[in-house]
Specification:
90 residues, mainly alpha, 0% strand
Length: 90
C-alpha cells in the first residue's frame, strides 16, 4: 500500500496542535503564564518538543530530520492556540 503524499505533515500538524492545547490547559493549573503571555509558553514548550523530536531522528537510521515536519509542528501549535484564543474570547 503506497503512502499518501503529505499525510505525515497533516499528522504532525494535528498532533502538535492537540499537544499545544494540552500544554495550554496544563499551564493554567501550573500558572506557567505568569512570566510569559499565556499563549507564548505553550508555543515555546511545543516548539522545544518538536525540535527535540527532529534532532532525535538524526540519531535514528530509520528516520530522517525534516524541516517541513518541524514547520508543520509549529504551525499546528500556532493555529490550534489561535483557535483556542478566539474561542476563549467569545
Amino acid at each position: 500500500m503506497g503512502q499518501v503524499s503529505g499525510l505525515d505533515k497533516v499528522a504532525h500538524f494535528l498532533a502538535f496542535g492537540v499537544l499545544a492545547l494540552l500544554v495550554f490547559g496544563a499551564s493554567f493549573n501550573l500558572r506557567l503564564g505568569r512570566y510569559l503571555p499565556g499563549f507564548l509558553m505553550p508555543l515555546l514548550i511545543v516548539t522545544i518538543i518538536g525540535v527535540t523530536d527532529e534532532l532525535y531522528q538524526l540519531s535514528n537510521p530509520s528516520r530522517a530530520f525534516e524541516l517541513l515536519d518541524l514547520a508543520a509542528d509549529i504551525s499546528g501549535a500556532i493555529v490550534f492556540l489561535c483557535f483556542c484564543k478566539l474561542f476563549l474570547k467569545s
